Amino acid sequence: MFTLGKKLKELAQKSPLSNNKIADKLGVSVNTLYNFYDREHLDTEILIKSCSIFNVELVYFFGELEGIKLSEKEEEKEELAKENIWSKKYLEAQEKVNKLQDEISDLKSKFIFAQSDFIETQKETLQKMTMILGKRKVYSKSKFETNKVQMPKKLVTNLNTSILAEC
Q1: pTM over 0.85
Q2: Alpha-carbon distance 13 to 7, whole Å?
Q3: Between these two residues, 55 and 84, which has the higher pLDDT value?
Q4: Contact, 129 vs 167, CB < 8 A?
Q5: How far is CA 121 from each of CA 34, 56, 116, 128, rounded to the nearest angstrom?
Q6: DSSP classification of residue 77
Q7: Do 8 and 50 touch, CB atoms closer than 8 A?
């Protein structure tokens, strides 16, 4: 079974600091520090100061709770970090897809607008052509009248109809 004192002793042994320096930074004597190494529990103040001295998180002292080792927790953190990276990449890709869909919608509406403009232009052109042909009919009729050629009304109507049909 682990004890907080054993964890503190492990940190002290791995540290380049001497026991005198560690005791001094904790604000205790060297003998008290050696007594800490044998204790199962330590004061919260000593744990917090130890975390600062050895640059570890408080969870280091409680790394083997309920059979879970600290290294397993770190592996879990790494897995979550990887998942976060993929989640971010997915969200970025989704944003790009949304932007492209917006661009496609804009292009569709521009195409529809251009198409309706084209249709309107074609209608106007057809109306102008009809007006020109209408004047042509009048011109043709007046030409016959000025030459004193009398054409039957039925023939003039058929002629006008055939001119319109050709257009």
Answers
A1: no
A2: 10
A3: 55
A4: yes
A5: 97, 77, 9, 11
A6: H
A7: yes
